[in-house]
Predict the 3D structure of the following.
Amino acid sequence: MSATHDRKPRTDTLSKERVDHDRPTRRSAILRSIACVVFAALAAASEVRAASPAESFVQSNIERSYAILNDPGLNPSERQLRFRDLLSSFVDVTRVALFTLGPHARGADQASIERFERAFAVFLTEVYLRGLNSYTTLKVTGSTERAAGDVIVNVAATRANGPPQLIAFRVRRADGGRHVVTDLQLEGAWLAITQRAEYAAYLQRNGGGLGALSAEVEQRAARLRVARIESEIQRRGRT
């Protein structure tokens, strides 16, 4: 009667099998790592390509705006003056103001036009300040070129309380090739277009008097300013 003996596999055979078994796993891990690196590089390149001159222009001025807004050394009046200077550097206020007047600008004397432009500049400053106070962050997300030198820059706006919102800046090329903002979209409505309709209705009701319209715009800006100052006082009281 012959005895049956268990034969143990050779150690070198087991090692080889383990190596053969582990090799696909290691290869997959290496490929995944390479894929992650490539994807990150492509994403970074995509972001670089997306940063068009118009987008960089808008994002830069947003950051400059928040620097003024968050400067603790400025009182409300100083902050408003700094913002007005900032807006005049990147918004074509004269162009926007004349657009809002439409045909009512024709035939008006220069003094009346200049008064309205000053009133509109203050009003626009307060509208922009109110928007900045409403949002915690503004981040450029992309742009659409309407025509050569005419770009809509999209911005994601986040709030401390409430859903995020999309706003947009219309950016055009001015003399010398520099960028300027010619309109601002808030809650789906373009500011200049909305104001043009409102001013036309006001002038129709009041006999087309540009002086009366300027006074009305000054009063609107003053009301926005009072509300802004009260909001700033309350916010500082909570901090």
